[in-house]
């Protein structure tokens, strides 16, 4: 589904991603861990086409297409979704209107019929139940005045609405209380299918108790320096990143 | 609403000014230029009573002595008032009973404008007074209104049929010598609308008038007068479009509103006069005097305007809060793009006791445009306990445009409470990227964000106008980002 080869990206003349290689197949869940500032969010931004970052080298193939050649909106329409680490507030724009516009744009791109108003509202209701989000939140403006945890839940709600092929969850677990964490994890699990895939960016093994990853990668200093099964997450939780740094030096 | 929003997004693919067609209706026009004979001729052709001719002549003589105002934040080429036509009427003088009698060419024009003149749309409850250039062609729904005693007709007709009412109120809010353009209008106004709501009547439908400048080189000078007697209510809608032309056209309207005890008038405008092309060529000069007088106690006047058009806009709908406990409101969205210039705002004049005013102004600047808010809140000596709240927000798209806010306060009574809040923001790249990431392209994202930003004002508009306004905002912003 996703093939990243030797990806290098810079911002303000500083190289943040320094040769990323990663393969993700349909049906898989990958966790990416790594110390603060190692480039995890940057990777998510580059994949989704944030123009603040400049790709200087490398290729990314997404379902057979050259991802880097697509505009951010076309990447989304191809089924790439990012749950933002810091979701953005858009005052005055109702969640309903926002989601309806997004969903319809995606459907149009794929040559599908857009949903009627009533079908759309039905879908909203259905997805709200799935991620157990307050109705009140979806009646408000996009993320405006939402608490940190509410914003994260709202990201998962949007993911449920848009049903992406590949979802990148950038620290969606941070700031969630225990119940919310379980709800979010449940939502992700319920949306899991053999034909879609998920990248979980997280600092905490805790999330991986709920969502079992097939692979865990450590991103350090702009490179993936270690990849293993889910036991790696436990090891990181216990020992931190120092031993990896030492391995690298030694 | 939701599906309509959808339609908006689809329609937005249309790039150029949508209403820029020019219909070939035979015109009966006076030659270019302005002098006392032209004023007399206008009055004669309109079969006006003597008092109107006197009104016009006095205004004309006043105007001769006046000077065009200083343009604070506007750059404007001098206007040659002798190079304009002051009167143009469709040749087939339409004295029509049914829609079938309307000139097909004219009907087609109305259809292009989307004016709800046809029967089905009439059923939706909008009474329309359509004005092409200078003569009011057709007023619908007049009978229904007449049953309630509501008068809704062209001002020319009102001058002939209800001279006493006109004589009593015309010029009572905006005197003929009020300002340069009001004086000019008073001398040469060709048509406009007249609304009279008698005591205790709630007007059973929204009243709507569409203005459109059609002929070449014709200035349009409409005159609107709305009188609401005790305990009455009316909501009045004004929509404007003008065809695309290279040369600038002048539009200098006067609107007067009078409310008596406990009456309420809501006046909504969606203005999309031709703004000129991308290089700033052509477009309408829109110099309008709009003023409401809350004459009776506990009466209320509310202005809502969405301004997207015109090359130059100079407009300050105002409220004179004369009665005690009166309320004035001003909700405004002014959008400028390319080389447009807008200097708009309001004046709230507190004269009575316990008077309140609210100002919500949302400016949006894109391209190389300049957008100024200019507002005056004046509290007179005897206006005890006056309250004003002003919220003036500016939204910038790009860094070649400008937004300016000029709040003026003249407070002569220490019990007054006046609050002013102002913000300036830019559409954030992060907001646009967030939308992009959900599959919404940048143009639509800007449309969404802008419509979110102006919601508070748009919500004041009647439903169908709100949709129209959102559509206009989106169209007006095309190509301004990316
Ligand atoms: N807009 C920017 N301008 C300058 N530097 C940036 C910018 N965005 C990110 N960086 C830098 O890039 C590096 C990687 O940041 P990134 O946000 O990808 O880290 P991260 O792995 O997601 O960290 P965290 O775990 O704290 O979320 C950091 O050193 C950061 O300061
Ligand atoms: Mg991060």
From TrEMBL, chain A:
Keywords: ATP-binding, Nucleotide-binding
Residue stretches making up the ABC transporter domain: 2-246
Spans through the membrane: none
Cited Pfam families: ABC_tran
PROSITE patterns found in the cross-reference section: ABC_TRANSPORTER_2 (PS50893)
Keyword 4Fe-4S attributed: no
GO MF annotation list: ATP binding; ATP hydrolysis activity
Family: Belongs to the ABC transporter superfamily. Ycf16 family.
Name of protein: Iron-sulfur cluster assembly ATPase protein SufC
Species in which this protein is naturally found: Geofilum rubicundum JCM 15548
Automatic annotation (TrEMBL), chain B:
Residue ranges constituting the SUF system FeS cluster assembly SufBD core domain according to the UniProt record: 211-452
Name of protein: Iron-sulfur cluster assembly protein SufB
Family under the similarity heading: Belongs to the iron-sulfur cluster assembly SufBD family.
UniProt domain SUF system FeS cluster assembly SufBD N-terminal: residue ranges: 140-203
Organism for this UniProt entry: Geofilum rubicundum JCM 15548
Coiled coil: none
A Gene Ontology biological process term: iron-sulfur cluster assembly
Matches recorded under NCBIfam families: PRK11814.1 (NF008773), sufB (TIGR01980)
């Amino acid at each position: 589904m996703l093939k990243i080869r030797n990806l290098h990206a810079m911002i303000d003349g500083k190289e943040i991603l320094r040769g990323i290689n990663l393969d993700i197949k349909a049906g898989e869940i990958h966790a990416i861990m790594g110390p603060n500032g190692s480039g995890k969010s940057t990777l998510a931004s580059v994949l989704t086409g944030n123009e603040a970052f400049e790709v200087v080298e490398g290729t990314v193939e997404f379902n057979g297409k050259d991802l880097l050649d697509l505009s951010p909106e076309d990447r989304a329409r191809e089924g790439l979704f990012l749950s933002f680490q810091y979701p953005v507030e858009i005052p005055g724009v109702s969640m309903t209107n926002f989601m309806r516009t997004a969903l319809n744009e995606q459907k149009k791109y794929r040559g599908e019929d857009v949903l009627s108003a009533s079908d759309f509202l039905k879908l909203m209701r259905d997805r709200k139940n799935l991620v157990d989000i307050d109705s009140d939140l979806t009646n408000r403006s996009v993320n405006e005045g939402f608490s940190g945890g509410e914003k994260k839940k709202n990201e998962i709600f949007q993911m449920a609405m848009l049903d992406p092929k590949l979802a990148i969850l950038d620290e969606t677990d941070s700031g969630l209380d225990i119940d919310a964490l379980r709800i979010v994890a449940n939502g992700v699990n319920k949306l899991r299918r053999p034909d879609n895939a998920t990248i979980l960016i997280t600092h905490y093994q805790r999330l991986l108790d709920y969502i079992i990853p097939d692979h865990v990668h450590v991103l350090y200093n702009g490179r993936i320096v270690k990849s293993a099964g889910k036991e790696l997450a436990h090891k990181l939780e216990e020992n931190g990143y120092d031993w990896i740094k030492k391995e690298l030096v030694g | 609403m939701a599906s309509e929003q959808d339609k908006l997004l689809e329609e937005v693919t249309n790039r150029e000014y949508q209403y820029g067609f020019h219909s070939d209706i035979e015109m009966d026009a006076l030659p270019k230029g302005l002098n006392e004979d032209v004023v007399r001729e206008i009055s004669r052709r309109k079969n006006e009573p003597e008092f109107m001719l006197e009104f016009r002549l006095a205004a004309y003589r006043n105007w001769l002595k006046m000077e065009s105002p200083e343009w604070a934040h506007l750059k404007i080429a001098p206007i040659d008032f002798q190079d304009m036509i002051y009167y143009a009427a469709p040749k087939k003088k339409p004295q029509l009973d049914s829609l079938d009698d309307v000139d097909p060419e004219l009907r087609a024009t109305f259809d292009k404008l989307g004016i709800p003149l046809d029967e089905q749309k009439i059923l939706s409850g909008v009474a329309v007074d359509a004005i092409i250039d200078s003569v009011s062609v057709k007023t619908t729904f007049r009978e229904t209104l007449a049953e309630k005693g509501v008068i809704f007709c062209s001002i020319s007709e009102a001058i002939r049929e209800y001279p006493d009412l006109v004589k009593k109120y015309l010029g009572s809010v905006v005197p003929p010598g009020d300002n340069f353009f009001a004086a000019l209008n008073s001398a040469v106004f060709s048509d406009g609308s007249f609304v009279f709501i008698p005591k205790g009547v709630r007007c059973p439908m929204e009243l709507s008038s569409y203005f459109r400048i059609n002929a070449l080189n014709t200035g349009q000078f409409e005159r609107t007068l709305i009188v609401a007697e005790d305990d009455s209510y009316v909501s009045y809608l004004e929509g404007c479009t003008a065809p695309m032309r290279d040369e600038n056209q002048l539009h200098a309207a006067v609107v007067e509103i009078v409310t008596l005890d406990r009456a309420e008038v809501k006046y909504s405008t969606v203005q999309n006069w031709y703004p000129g092309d991308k290089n700033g060529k052509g477009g309408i000069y829109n110099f309008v005097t709009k003023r409401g007088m809350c004459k009776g106690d506990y009466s209320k006047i509310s202005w809502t305007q969405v301004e997207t058009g015109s090359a130059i806009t100079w407009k300050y709908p105002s409220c004179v809060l004369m009665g005690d406990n009166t309320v004035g409101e001003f909700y405004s969205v002014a959008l400028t793009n390319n080389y447009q210039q807008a200097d708009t705002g309001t004046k709230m004049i507190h004269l009575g006791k316990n008077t309140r005013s609210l100002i919500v102004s949302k400016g949006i600047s894109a391209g190389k445009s300049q957008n100024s808010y200019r507002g005056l809140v004046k509290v007179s000596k005897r206006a005890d306990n006056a309250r004003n709240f002003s919220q003036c927000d500016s939204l910038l798209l790009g860094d070649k445009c400008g937004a300016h806010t000029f709040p003026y306060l003249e407070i002569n009574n220490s019990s007054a409470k006046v609050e002013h809040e102002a913000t300036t923001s830019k559409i954030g790249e992060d907001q646009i990227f967030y939308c992009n990431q959900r599959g919404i392209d940048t143009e639509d994202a800007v449309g969404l964000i802008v419509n979110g930003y102006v919601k508070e004002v748009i919500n004041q508009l009647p439903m169908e106008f709100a949709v129209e306004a959102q559509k206009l905002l989106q169209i007006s912003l095309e190509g301004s980002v990316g």
